[in-house]
Specification:
By secondary structure, the protein is of the alpha/beta class. Helix content is 34%, strand content 21%. The protein has an 8-stranded mixed sheet, with helices on both faces.
């Protein structure tokens, strides 16, 4: 596992009913030749358009960005308050696995957004906070070859990026990846980037660090964990630049 740290200070309704009721999808088209498509997943309470303006500034002219919106659901973490969320959770913990159905539904939605992309286009999934968790869950499903419900995972992912997130159902996923040589082979060949601020007060740094360690020990050998001193639960230009450089290196984007 590549483990990098930045020392620069950074100032800068019913859940079951709604689990498939995804909101509007926003698309940022490539400015030059289309070589990669990446689904970008927002955090809790946001929508697909929350990130489009930022993504339009990324110096990756060959990337098409697909930005879906999560369903609105009653989130246990917020005492049943309705908000957009990719799955239901009761705590920010990598061992928590409250809503496997919701995770599978969101990972399936991501795959369905990518499945019709041209054969010569590389595919990726990325996200922030809870969106990052779905990105990492999708990476694990790619390695295992199945969703949590046993259905086949249909996408050949070329990259996964997680900003300020965590790996949900980590113990189960680690055991499933480790139980299969083929899953371990696919895991080792999939580039994964995790970025986390050291003063994140929403998804604590230790949770992100443990997720990176769990994935690496499960077989994701091509994994980079990038940390930022002074960064909370948001992004900064330095982190964005690191993400763009990493994507350009592994996707040729």
């Amino acid at each position: 596992m590549s483990y990098n740290s930045s020392n620069r200070d950074s100032g800068s309704r019913n859940a079951r009913r709604n689990v498939h009721d995804f909101g509007r999808t926003f698309v940022v088209m490539p400015k030059q030749t289309h070589t990669a498509t990446i689904v970008w997943l927002h955090g809790i309470g946001e929508k697909g358009s929350s990130w489009t303006q930022i993504l339009e500034t990324f110096p990756l002219p060959n990337v098409k960005w697909i930005c879906p919106s999560a369903p609105s659901r009653l989130l246990t973490l917020y005492g049943g308050y309705p908000c957009t969320a990719w799955f239901n959770i009761s705590s920010m913990s990598e061992d928590a696995c409250d809503d496997l159905e919701g995770l599978d539904a969101s990972a399936t939605h991501v795959a369905n957004l990518l499945i019709s992309e041209p054969d010569d286009v590389k595919l990726g999934v990325a996200g922030f906070s809870m969106g990052a968790s779905v990105a990492l869950y999708s990476a694990a499903c790619r390695a295992i070859g199945q969703y949590g419900n046993g259905n086949r995972y249909p996408i050949n992912l070329s990259a996964a990026v997680a900003l300020s997130g965590w790996l949900p159902c980590s113990r189960t996923l680690r055991n499933r990846v480790g139980a299969s040589q083929e899953a371990a082979r696919r895991a080792s060949s999939l580039p994964v980037l995790l970025c986390h601020g050291q003063v994140d007060d929403v998804v604590e740094y230790k949770i992100g660090e443990k997720s990176a360690q769990t994935m690496y020990s499960a077989g994701f050998q091509n994994l980079t964990f990038q940390t930022y001193n002074g960064l909370g639960h948001y992004t900064i230009l330095e982190e964005i630049n690191d993400v763009c450089c990493w994507l350009n290196a592994c996707l040729g984007a």
